[in-house]
Specification:
It is a single chain. The protein has a single domain, classed as Alpha/Beta hydrolase fold, catalytic domain (Rossmann fold, 3-Layer(aba) Sandwich). Helices cover about 25% and strands about 20% of the residues. The strands form three sheets. The chain has a ten-stranded mixed beta sheet, sandwiched between helices. Keywords: Hydrolase, Lipid degradation, Lipid metabolism.
Length: about 500
């Protein structure tokens, strides 16, 4: 009876759409390049991230383990997620005691070996940055789906007070310190300082992880999690770096919301925001169209303009999901010189002041012709329906009824949100294949009209419910996406007051 109830009450994620089994490992290592951010009261002390990858399933009889969606199955995360959503800690504590909620798992397999790629190929690398309220697991469906098509996807957990809760390991005594979420609803000088240094920390975390993995090629030893219900291994997983394209210039960056802003800061250089904040000469000031932001007289933070982590970082392309660009609006006039795709939900598309910045970002982009067809800009903007901001994360899949009522999306069901997620993945696969020169797999059909994942998959054993049907790709567009025109440069007026 209990087993039957658990089957139906435990939140579930759909199978990944690609041809490969997905493995995943959670890693935490000491930060080789630590930094303190007194302005926001945080620091980069360790690097915590989850890696999704094409996995090899061995026939040695070892038990298949699925990672918990709430890290380690720790129920404390439920309470903090509820508080992030603006509800009381009492409600969160009660929900954390509800059976089965904390038992949600990822569709990937924990700590299995990395699969050898097809002959003559190496797996490409994507780094995905979470948004406000996100974690290393919060976008597991997108990250795992991209891995199922043949990519190594790295999902950092940022320690900038943007996660609902995160724990930093102290390697000296094997204890953990807690970093809570910091809510900032206002848009003012204080928030500008805090967001800028959050981005500065996020960029350091992203770039540090890339350098640690692709340059140092460290062993991937599974991390221990606070109050974990998962078995912990002290041995590194079988992860052969010779199977991976470790060329730094070929890394792809992606992110959702504030994570998309982080992606922009990585490739354009977060020093532009700091130069503006510290009133130093910068291209960002020259292209700032608001002309009315007051910058502070003094900031409780040192700033080294020669810090390598603050400069622009090379990339083969960027994928932006619901980019929240107000925190980086000073950088909109600086060309984005890599192939870019931005995919908007209906809710973010309706946010006019932010959409103006999205148009400005893409219209000021200049992708070199050597990496794109002469008839195409290498920049794409799409709208997915039916969707809300949380449709880009796992939230709408795990809790469709809550999403339906909380975000007023009557069409929100597990099936529609699975379709939305698969459309996002299908579009990103096609975009990266076409414009970033990335070889991803399970895209069939002729050159003019590909077909992404034609087979349907079942949600549960014995169920006839279709959760993945595949999407036609023609002329750079996914069936189910609405193509939006990238307009000419838009002058943004008084963005901090919400006026355009």
């Amino acid at each position: 009876m209990i087993g039957s109830a658990a089957k139906y009450l435990t939140p579930k994620l759909p199978p990944y759409p690609g041809p490969y089994t997905v493995g995943s490992v959670e890693v935490e290592v000491p930060a080789p390049w630590p930094a303190k951010y007194d302005a926001i009261g945080t620091a980069v002390e360790t690097l915590l991230f989850r890696v999704f990858y094409p996995g090899s399933v061995t026939a040695d009889g070892a038990a298949e383990v699925h990672p918990y969606w709430f890290p380690g199955g720790n129920r404390d995360y439920i309470k903090d997620y509820v508080q992030f959503l603006g509800k009381s800690s009492t409600i969160g504590s009660l929900l954390a005691r509800v059976p089965f909620v904390a038992d949600a798992v990822l569709p990937c397999l924990a700590n299995i070996p990395l699969l050898a790629p097809p002959s003559g190929h190496k797996w490409p690398v994507i780094v995905f940055s979470h948004g406000l309220g996100g974690t290393r697991n919060a976008y597991s469906q997108f990250c795992g789906s991209m891995a199922s098509h043949g990519a190594i996807v790295i999902a950092p957990e940022h320690r900038d007070m943007s996660a609902p809760i995160t724990y930093v390991r102290n390697y000296k005594d094997n204890t953990y310190s807690e970093i809570p979420y910091r809510r900032m609803m206002e848009v003012n000088e204080t928030a500008r300082i805090l967001r800028t240094f959050q981005l500065t920390q996020r960029v350091r975390e992203v770039v540090s992880i890339v350098k640690v993995l692709l340059e140092q090629k460290i062993d991937l030893t599974p991390a221990s999690t606070v109050n974990s219900r998962e078995p912990v291994s002290i041995n590194p997983i079988n992860f052969n770096w010779d199977f991976v394209d470790t060329t730094i210039e070929k890394v792809l960056y992606s992110g959702h919301s504030f994570g998309a802003a982080t992606t922009i800061a990585v490739v354009k250089g977060v020093h532009h925001l700091l130069d503006f904040l510290f009133q130093k000469p910068t291209d960002a000031v020259a292209t700032n169209n608001t002309g009315n932001e007051e910058v502070p007289d003094s900031i409780d933070q040192e700033y080294d303009p020669n810090d390598q982590f603050l400069r622009p970082h090379p990339s083969a392309g960027v994928v932006l999901l619901d980019p929240w660009l107000i925190p980086v609006y000073q950088m909109m006039g600086i060309p984005l010189t890599v192939p870019a795709v931005a995919n908007m939900s209906q809710s973010f598309y309706g946010w006019k002041s932010n959409m103006n910045l999205v148009y400005q970002l893409l219209s000021n982009s200049a992708v070199p012709e050597k990496i794109r067809p002469k008839t195409d800009t290498g920049v794409h903007l799409f709208l997915t329906k039916p969707s809300v901001h949380h449709s880009q994360s796992d939230f709408a899949l795990l809790f469709p009824s809550l999403t339906k009522y909380a975000f007023k999306l009557p069409e929100c069901t597990f099936e529609t949100q699975t379709a939305v997620m698969n459309m996002n993945v299908a579009g990103c696969v096609e975009f990266l294949r076409e414009y970033a020169g990335v070889q991803l797999f399970d895209v069939t059909g002729d050159a003019d009209e590909g077909l992404v994942r034609t087979e349907s998959k079942e949600h549960e054993e014995g169920s006839t419910e279709t959760v993945s049907t595949g999407y036609l790709v023609a002329g750079g567009q996914i069936k189910g996406w609405s193509r939006l025109d990238v307009e000419n440069d838009i002058t943004v007026v008084d963005i901090l007051e919400g006026n355009t």
